Amino acid sequence: QVHLVESGGGWVQPGGSLRLSCEGSGFAFKDYHMSWYRQTPSSHEREFVAVVTSPGGYTRYEDDVVGRFNISRDNQKNTAYLQMNNLTVEDTAVYYCRAVTTGGSSNYWGQGTQVTVSS
């Protein structure tokens, strides 16, 4: 059975940092590109945040998070990470982890973790 479990969300003041984790099981983690998305209460869609590919470990980021967020992965631990620095209130959202193969033939989502940035 496939599982993607996010953790590390919570409340932080503006300018603070959080590190999200996404642990996968039940599938060949190393064969999947790992992404983070987020969804705000006012949005009906999940917004792309960042991706790290496999193989290669290439990364890409949504423009608003460039220079503040860093995505990484540890295939030995079947875990992807999102280090978020200099957070703003606009980063408040539910953050979701996604595992997807090239071409999208196989696609899994986590249950989400809430990140709240406020003073």
Provide a concise account of the structure shown.
By secondary structure, the chain is an all-beta fold.
Computed over alpha carbons, the radius of gyration is 14 Å
Order of helices and strands: EEEEEEEEEEE
Structural class: mainly beta
Number of DSSP E strands: 11
Number of helices: 0
**Poorly predicted segments:** none
Termini separation (Å)? 40 Å
How would you explain this protein's 3D organization?
With 119 residues, this protein is an all-beta fold. It has strands at 3-7, 10-12, 18-25, 33-39, 47-52, 59-61, 69-74, 79-84, 93-100, 107-109, 113-117. Strands 2, 4, 5, 6, 9, 10 and 11 form a seven-stranded mixed beta sheet that branches. Strand 5 and strand 6 form a beta hairpin.
Draw up the topology in text.
Elements: E1 3-7, E2 10-12, E3 18-25, E4 33-39, E5 47-52, E6 59-61, E7 69-74, E8 79-84, E9 93-100, E10 107-109, E11 113-117
Parallel strand pairs: 2-11
Antiparallel strand pairs: 1-3, 3-8, 4-5, 4-9, 5-6, 7-8, 9-10, 9-11
